[in-house]
C-alpha cells in the first residue's frame, strides 16, 4: 500500500516531483495484479492463464486468494519418473558423454551382459 501525504507550505524541486512520479508509475506498473473470482475464472481459464504470463493473476475463492505463477516446464525423460533425470544438468552430462562416445573420445570400460558380469566387475565374486 502506498500512502501519499502533503505537507503544508513545503517547497519541492520540480525534478524531484518528476522522479517521484516516475518511481510511483514503475511501482504500480510492475505490481499490477488482476484478481478474479473463481466463477469468472472457470468461464474463461485460458484467458487468465495467458494473462498470468505477462502480469500477476490471482483467483479469489471465499476468503482464500490463489496466485497463478508460471514456471518453465522441465520434462522428466525417465519412464519411471526418477527425479535424477528431471535435473537438466544430469541430462546434459549424459548427452555430452554419448556425443563424446560416438566421436571416440570416451573408451568403453566394460561390457556387462549378465548378472555374473556385473558381479565380477563390482568385485563381488
Q: Your description of this structure?
A:
The chain has 125 residues and is α+β, with helices and mostly antiparallel strands. It folds into 2 domains: 14-68, no CATH class; 83-122, no CATH class. 44% of the residues lie in helices and 13% in strands. It is built from 5 helices and 3 strands; from the N terminus they run αβααββαα. A 3-stranded mixed β-sheet has the order 1-2-3. The longest helix has 17 residues, at 14-30.
Strand fraction: 5-15%
What characterizes the major β-sheet? 3 strands, mixed
Categorize the overall geometry.
Answer: elongated
How many helix segments?
Answer: 5
Offer a few descriptive terms.
single chain, 125 residues, alpha+beta, 2 domains, 3-stranded mixed sheet, 3 strands, 13% strand
Please sum up the structure shown.
The protein has 2 domains: 14-68, no CATH class; 83-122, no CATH class. Helices cover 44% and strands 13% of the residues. It has 5 helices and 3 strands.
Topology (SSEs and partners):
Elements: H1 14-30, E1 33-37, H2 38-43, H3 45-52, E2 56-61, E3 64-68, H4 88-103, H5 115-122
Parallel strand pairs: 1-2
Antiparallel strand pairs: 2-3
Amino acid at each position: 500500500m502506498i500512502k501519499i501525504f502533503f505537507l503544508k507550505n513545503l517547497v519541492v524541486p520540480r525534478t524531484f516531483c518528476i522522479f517521484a512520479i516516475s518511481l510511483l508509475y514503475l511501482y504500480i506498473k510492475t505490481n499490477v495484479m488482476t484478481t478474479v473470482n473463481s466463477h469468472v475464472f472457470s468461464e474463461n481459464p485460458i484467458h487468465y492463464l495467458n494473462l498470468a504470463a505477462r502480469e500477476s493473476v490471482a483467483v479469489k475463492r471465499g476468503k482464500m486468494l490463489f496466485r497463478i505463477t508460471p514456471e518453465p516446464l522441465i520434462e522428466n525423460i525417465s519412464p519411471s519418473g526418477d527425479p535424477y533425470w528431471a535435473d537438466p544438468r544430469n541430462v546434459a552430462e549424459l548427452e555430452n558423454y554419448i556425443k563424446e562416445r560416438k566421436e571416440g573420445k570416451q573408451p568403453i570400460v566394460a561390457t556387462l551382459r549378465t548378472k555374473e558380469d556385473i558381479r565380477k566387475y563390482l568385485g563381488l565374486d
